[in-house]
Write a structure and sequence with these properties.
heterodimer, A: 11 helices, 0% strand, B: 209 residues, 9 strands, activator (chain B), nucleus (chain B)
Chain lengths: 269, 209
């Protein structure tokens, strides 16, 4: 009976040690990455590291809860020999972290009570719990149980129900509007809603049919701005809102070239 | 004398034919912060860059139907920087399974006399707008989150009003023609931005109606 327990204890301690070593390695590589590869680190890989650590902590928890694991509370560790001399064996075992097994390190490493700060907080919590009184405490327990069971129900329900709820929730908070997408793409691609000399709205494919805007500067025709505006009414262009514009020129560059050679009368447009 | 090298396109000035691969989407104002945080995490680690640009779109009307479009862009936050002239071709119709919009793209930097030069050439300014926002980079991919504003008085970039309550999000890559792995990378990056933004291939010609 004793032997079996001893064997169990040994085996469980060994597996615990190996799991803790895994966690230590994972933490070590994560810290290294954070400190040295800071520029190249991306959020998905940070999340991966956290997920790894959380998985390892989970396995440790499962191991501790395992029935084959004897209760560690019933075991006591008593230091038999303390010496201020450096112990090489110990140093090798602990990778140079504990070189001396002396009076200073024993209280920290062999501690079974929680840290003083934790003890303080726990004392406060127990005092608060005693203060509330049994009925209020009972009510709080019941609310907590209700919330937990509601959550469990939601999680255990068939997936389709959950998806429908999620879809409904998501619709309440959309983060983009497809109509806006189309409007913006239209604006960037061909000025839908941007040009003021056309009514805002989709631009008809017959862009070439409308007169261009003049942005200033002499044209090839060398017609003065004043002279140009005088011809505006005879142009018969389809866009009437050009009051602010200094003058309209004929709509194709070929026409401009022809006029420069003097063979085309400006009123002919 | 050996035969001259055979090229598909006339080689002018030693530039390779660059294509722009593009995916577009939009995000509402209230979701902008979360999108920016996500992009800061996903993209290359650099100081977040904001920009304020004034873009003018020039048209040259030929005898036949489609006008020739050039886009001139200048920075309002760096007034002494050169202007930027860009030509974007028609989107390549081809592979329907290709995930991004692909079009020919030619970019040059120019001096500040660009508007006058284009006017002399016969181009006429069709529309202009002010774009400001944030730009992120991941490798060759560029993500731009822009707020577009309409210019109320032509030439006055102070007097502007927003076009809509959303920000335009564009994911683009400039690559030589023929590299189709680019669109795969773009699509996997776009997956990481869902469900905040749906980046997709939007054909501009379909928007006209």
């Amino acid at each position: 009976m004793q032997q079996r327990e001893e064997k169990q204890l040994e085996a469980s301690v060994e597996s615990l040690v190996s799991r803790v070593a895994h966690v230590k390695n994972a933490l070590h590589s994560f810290i290294y990455k954070l400190e040295n590869e800071y520029e190249r680190l991306t959020w998905p890989s940070v999340l991966d590291n956290f997920a790894l650590l959380s998985g390892q902590l989970n396995t440790i928890n499962k191991l501790l809860k395992n029935e084959k694991t004897p209760s560690y509370r019933s075991q006591v560790i008593i230091p038999l020999l303390l010496s201020p001399d450096r112990d090489d064996e110990l140093a090798k075992l602990t990778e140079q972290r504990v070189p001396v097994f002396s009076h200073e390190i024993v209280p920290d490493y062999l501690r079974t009570k929680p840290d003083p700060e934790v003890e303080e907080v726990e004392k406060q919590l127990t005092a608060e719990a005693a203060r509330i009184g049994p009925e209020a405490a009972q009510k709080q327990i019941q609310t907590l149980n209700k919330l937990c069971s509601g959550l469990l129900e939601k999680l255990n329900n068939p997936r389709d129900e959950r998806e429908a709820e999620n879809a409904a929730l998501r619709q309440n908070k959309p983060s983009f509007n497809p109509a806006d997408t189309n409007a913006l793409v239209g604006a960037v691609a061909f000025g839908k809603g941007l040009s003021k000399c056309r009514p805002p709205g989709p631009v008809a494919p017959g862009l070439s049919g409308q007169g261009p805007m003049m942005s200033g500067g002499p044209t090839l025709q060398q017609v003065t701005i004043g002279g140009g505006s005088g011809q505006q009414t005879s142009m018969g262009g389809p866009v009437p809102q050009q009051q602010g514009q200094p003058g309209k020129m004929p709509s194709s560059i070929k026409t401009n070239i022809k006029s420069a050679s003097g063979s085309m009368h400006p009123y002919n447009r | 004398m050996e035969a001259p090298p055979v090229t598909v396109m006339p080689v002018t000035g030693g530039t390779i034919n660059m294509m722009e691969y593009l995916l577009q989407g939009s995000v509402l104002d209230q979701a902008l912060e979360s999108l920016l945080h996500r992009l800061r995490g996903l993209c290359d680690n650099m100081e977040p860059e904001t920009f304020t640009d004034h873009e003018l779109v020039y048209l040259l009307k030929g005898q036949q139907g489609n006008p020739f479009i050039l886009r001139a862009r200048r920075s309002l936050s760096h007034p002494t920087a050169p202007w930027h002239l860009r030509y974007l071709g028609q989107p390549e119709v081809g592979d329907k399974s290709r995930h991004a919009l692909v079009r020919n793209c030619v970019d040059v930097a120019t001096s500040h006399t660009l508007p006058e030069f284009l006017n002399e050439m016969g181009f006429r300014m069709d529309h202009e707008f002010v774009a400001n926002g944030h730009i992120f980079r991941k490798g060759a991919m560029k993500v731009v989150v822009t707020k577009l504003s309409r210019i109320l008085v032509p030439g006055n970039t102070e007097n502007i009003e927003r076009l809509s309550l959303s920000y335009l999000v564009e994911l683009s890559v400039l690559a030589p023609a023929g590299q189709d792995t680019v669109s795969e990378d773009m699509r996997s990056f776009a997956e990481q931005l869902k469900p905040l933004v749906h980046l997709e291939k939007i054909d501009p010609s379909k928007q006209r109606h």
